[in-house]
Amino acid sequence: MQKTAPNETEQQRLTKRKLVKFMEYAIILAVTVVAVIALRNPIHKFPMVFYVLAIALDVIFVCHSTGVFALPRDVWKVMFELIQSCMLPMAMFMIVMYIGCFKKGGKAYTWLKPIRSELSIIAWILSLGHMAVYLNSYIPRILAGANINTNIMSAFVLALILLVLLLVLGVTSFNFLKKRMSTKTWIKIQKWAYPFWALVYVHLMLMLAPSAMRGGQAAIISVAVYTISFGVYAVWRIARAVMDKKAAAEGAT
Predict the structure, then answer these.
(1) Can you list the alpha helix ranges (DSSP code H) found in 67-192?
(2) Are 92 and 16 in contact (CB under 8 A)?
């Protein structure tokens, strides 16, 4: 009995850590969804207020990360989960992408579609803070010739590609630029959101898979959660495209 008790205790600890990690992501996603629904009208009417708030969060995050000033420990823990772990921009991008899965003309689609661009811009701004800190961390090491494993180097190269796509998609989401582009060109550019989203998943797997394969519990849960989230989106979005195409064909006949 004395030998099994520690094993049981360790198993309980692992289960608790798994549950906590999953709950963190679930809570952030749920709160983000509720906040988006509750703030739909203010976001639609005063998007610049939310852009400024997102920029302010980025500045605070980058300043703390680079040692300009130090945040209180509890505040930094929240900032770490929201921005450094990229959970908040990921949750917002998730909402933006899932909006495209809803039936056109349905209540959810009609309610959220008008703020889709605004949500993507807010998520874009927050993602830039996340990328700035990570690139600032890895670029000096790479330039100095530090020994970096293949997975991390691949993830870094992919991060640069994602940064380029993020800049193009984010900038063209602003209304002032959108109005200066032809509808056809704008749609073509925005379709790059799909490969962007797929590459985000690949990037996450490159960062998380090594730790998950070594038995890292937080990484295993993250891999599972992201795989389910991205997988459900892929299946639902393809199904929506098929249904929309079918409906269009029936309408034409």
Answers:
(1) 73-79, 87-99, 107-112, 116-143, 150-171, 175-178, 183-190
(2) no
Question: Angle of helix 116-143 relative to helix 47-65, nearest 10 degrees?
Answer: 20
Whether the pLDDT of residue 41 is over 80: the answer is yes
CA 87 – CA 24 distance, rounded (Å): 9
CA dihedral sign of residues 124, 130, 136, 139: negative
Residue 69 has pLDDT above 90, yes or no: no
Distant-in-sequence, close-in-space partners of 46: CB < 8 Å, separation ≥ 6? none
d(CA 57, CA 35): 17
The radius of gyration of the chain from alpha carbons, rounded to an integer in Å, stands at 20
Q: Is 214 helix (H, G, I), strand (E, B) or coil?
A: coil
Other Cβ atoms less than 10 A from the Cβ of 58: the count is 19
How far is it, in rounded angstroms, from Cα 24 to Cα 68? 28
Q: Are 65 and 79 in contact (CB under 8 A)?
A: no
Q: Give the pTM.
A: 0.83
Helical (H) or strand (E) element with 23: helix 4-38
Q: The tokens 């900032």 sit on which residue?
A: 79
CA dist 251 → 98, 141, 238, 244 (Å): 25, 58, 20, 10
| Amino acid residing at 200 | V
Distance CA 208, CA 25 (A): 15
